[in-house]
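In full, the data.
>
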Amino acid sequence: MVMIEFVYAAAILMLVGAFGGLLQTRPIDKILLLAVLGDGLIAIIAIFQYLDVLMISSFMTFVGIVILTIGLIRSREIRGSKEGGIL
């Protein structure tokens, strides 16, 4: 049975988030892959046991993703109202 170490799994998460964010064209996909990148970063921080930094970074990542998603929804609403339709 092949065992993948946690460090490698976290690094793979970060690489998938980074390269996926570069290759995607839709904004919502970029935001989701930014969350994947953040999850990999949080896992790396947990591996090195910086738990105070881990708590702050996980909270800031979550809040940042929520703010970006709200901004995307608002911008689509504004664009939709200028064109005469909703979304």
Summary: The longest helix spans residues 51-83.
